[in-house]
Amino acid sequence: MTVLLFLIPVALLLGGLGIWCFVWAVNSAQFEDLDTAARRILFDDADAKLREGTER
Amino acid sequence: MAIPTALPLAYDAATQRLCAHCGEPARGGERFCCTGCAGAYALITGLGLDQYYRLRGKAAPVATSDEGAVDWSEFTETLPDGRHRLAVMVGDLQCAACLWLIEHALRAQPAVSRVQLSGATRRLTVEWSGAVTEADKLVATVTRLGYRCLPAGADLAADSLAEERGLLRAMAVAGFAAANIMLFSVSVWSGHVNDMDPATRDLFHGISALIAIPAIAYAGRPFFRSAVNALRHSRSNMDVPISIGVTLAVLVSIAEMVQSGPHAYFDAAVTLLFFLLVGRYLDLRARGFARRTAQQLLAWTTRPVAVRTAAGLVHRPAHRVAVGECVLVAAGERIGVDGTVLEGQSAVDASLLTGESLPQPVAAGSMVHAGAVNIDAPLTLRVTAVGDATLVGEMTRLMEAAEQGRSRFVRLAEKVSRWYAPVVHVTALVSFFGWVTLGGADWRSALLIAAAVLIITCPCALALAVPVVQVVASSRLMRAGILMKSATALERAAVIDTVVFDKTGTLTLGRPRLVPPTAEAAAALPLAASLAARSRHPLCRALVASAAEHVARDGVREIPGQGLVCETPDGEIRLGNAHFIGLQAQDMQDYSVLWLARPGHAPVCFSFADDLRSDAAAVLARLRAGGKRLLILSGDHAGAVRRVADVLGVADWQAGIDPRGKAAVIAALKAEGRHVLMVGDGLNDAVALASADASLSPASGLEIAQNAADAVFQGETLGAVLDFLAVAKQNRRLAIQNLALALGYNLIAVPLAIAGLVTPLIAAIAMSSSSLIVVANALRLDLSKEENAI
């Protein structure tokens, strides 16, 4: 059972990393406008083609 | 912002006679309806952004070129690294393609380093390096695309956004802690059965405490702060029992842990906080969304206007013009001040103010108001009122006053929580003293029981009950094309028994259409259209739209407020009102008419009517069947209103009523004890929309009306009114059911807790299951199932 003494801190650390990522995402305003981003993704294709177009 | 529902409008020059940019009917065989749109199209294709025309879900706004000279560099802030940042509010955003277009058009400018446009808040932030004066050029790029730009004021929504972020972080921490502590708790619970080594149990309790204490200290702050605040003002609120319950549970558990006792409530305390934070976040999000939408109020009265001074023409914001000065209003420009006409003859579209569907002729001496659009010819005005003193300003004030009255509405959840907190405290105290005095328990186990009572009664399900229904309801409405702006609107709309409609633009589409003409008139239609193609008057545009083919004629002169005239070798052709072609004005008030006079023929007449929305009659019949009293209040003249009222079978109507009159009628209805839903689209409805119990506005309506309304609906039909009322009713029913479920859970759990039977395991199961039941019940809300329940 002594393996717990090693595994528990590891588990907590990984979880803590998860929270840290989430807090970072919240602080960088990624949860403020959920709708626009969802639709913007539809235009990524167009963006790529556009870039090709201008490079050519 | 509009949800793209329509299929993309593919532009095909060969088959369409619609403007390539905005989709409005274009003149003759031309590609664009006006130079503004031609400019926007050239700009878009020039930047290689023609993808936009394939991507968009809706036609673009008509591009105008009338924006006056705002000095945008005044609104610019300079960043520490020398770059500049400008925030503007962008109007007329239709769909995601608009965002794409604006962002890419700006990114194509070499100096620009960052562009961000939020569809939810309509706030555009641009950062660039180089000269501050670039600001004007950047904004001009956006206006040339056809979007209105206004200086973004202080970000009023910043507070609510910061609060939302704080709650999200707290929620994440509480969720993480709850899940991890639960792992140890489950081990401990199974250890009770399988004889866990007390040393391992103490270790697990210790680790739980290590996670729980900092997590609660962080995630509990919103509740502690609010509880302390309430107590300081010697009041009690929902947060007081929550704070006491959580603190007590932690303290008791620490004592248990130190004494190596079998039970600890760390998991219950943290899970409780997590569920409460979920409810609070949902609630704040619903309210924050409403608040941000309200921020979009665009101020017409601060637009720049051209002032005629001794030194020449100067552009100044409308509210800084002095009364008595002379202001020049170009054709096609929106008037920014109230004033009397000094020079010029034109027609003014005051539909936003009065609801009158057709432009009114004005000449020297006529009164015009800010917000109206000058259509035909330039006007010179002597200013009589500016800013807050204008009719628009007064209406905004009345609207705000009306909204304050509405904010006194007490929400269902608040009503419950008012008596809930004292009851919980008294119950916990009574069980503590009861066990010490009557039950003969020692103070330690009595305190453990009191803590269990507080935890189990804590309004976990109660805090989720209403917000979760509200969030489900607004997302269902969103899918039906109805955008909720106010968090309490659904509760207010559930008891509606009277529905008041505006006519123009609400019951009708707000656009004149040619009534099928007589054979004689039909034969003359191509000729009439060839003249009408030279005018932007709404009746002329309607005439052109219904003519199969025509060629725009040269040499047509427009006489403001009267009609069009064209000299031909055979004589004069005239198209205009009865007086203009030398007829006695007849009483044709039911219809708007244009007369055509030409050499060798008797004058012919074209009538126009504003079409009803296709399902208006059906929707009103359904409302009537649902026992609602129906009214029509319109600023239009009696004939037009009577015709609509007769078709729809509404006996109760008033015509020629001004904005204050509309609000007064609603106030009178409310004084009778009726609950009123107002549906309207114009500035003249804004005060009425704000003073009604609940209100709806079509997305085609004026921005100020959309701001005053609780919800905005999209599309050409009125069915949204039924959906809104049906969801409101379901929302109320489910909220009450949820409150009943939450209270019912307490009725079972509290006696168990008082009897001392609640162990941490039972507390965890009871709390989680009650919360899940409440959420599951809310998800039952379904629009399609309840089509018949209004």
Mean of residue pLDDT of chain B?
Answer: 78
Strand content of chain A: under 5%
Strand and helix order of chain A: HHH
Tell me the helix content of chain B.
40-55%
Q: Kindly report how far apart the N and C termini of chain A lie.
A: 65 Å
Helix fraction of chain A by DSSP (H/I, runs of at least 4): over 70%
Provide the CATH top-level class of the domain at 1-153 in chain B: Alpha Beta
Q: Largest beta sheet of chain B, briefly? A: 7 strands, mixed
Number of DSSP strand runs of chain A: 0
Q: How large is the radius of gyration of chain A?
A: 21 Å
Please give the number of β-strands of chain B. 27
Structural class of chain A: mainly alpha
Low-confidence stretches of chain B: 1-16, 294-301
In percent, how much strand structure appears in the residues of chain B? 15-25%
Strand and helix map with partners:
The complex is a heterodimer of chains A (56) and B (790).
Chain A: H1 3-27, H2 34-40, H3 44-55
Chain B: H1 35-46, H2 51-55, E1 77-78, E2 84-90, H3 96-107, E3 112-117, E4 123-128, H4 134-144, E5 149-151, H5 158-194, H6 198-219, H7 221-232, H8 239-258, H9 266-294, E6 304-309, E7 312-317, E8 326-329, E9 338-343, E10 346-349, H10 351-354, E11 360-362, E12 367-368, E13 373-374, E14 379-385, H11 391-406, H12 412-437, H13 443-457, H14 460-479, E15 482-484, H15 489-493, E16 498-501, H16 503-507, E17 508-514, H17 519-532, H18 538-546, E18 556-559, E19 563-568, E20 571-576, E21 592-597, E22 604-612, H19 616-625, E23 629-633, H20 638-648, E24 653-654, H21 659-671, E25 676-679, H22 686-691, E26 694-698, H23 703-708, E27 711-713, H24 719-754, H25 760-778
Parallel strand pairs in B: 16-23, 16-25, 23-24, 25-26, 26-27
Antiparallel strand pairs in B: 1-2, 2-4, 2-5, 3-4, 6-7, 6-8, 8-14, 9-12, 9-14, 10-11, 10-13, 15-27, 17-22, 18-19, 19-20, 20-21, 21-22
Helix pairs in contact in B: 5-6, 5-9, 6-8, 6-9, 7-8, 8-9, 8-13, 9-14, 9-25, 12-13, 12-24, 13-24, 14-24, 14-25, 17-18, 24-25
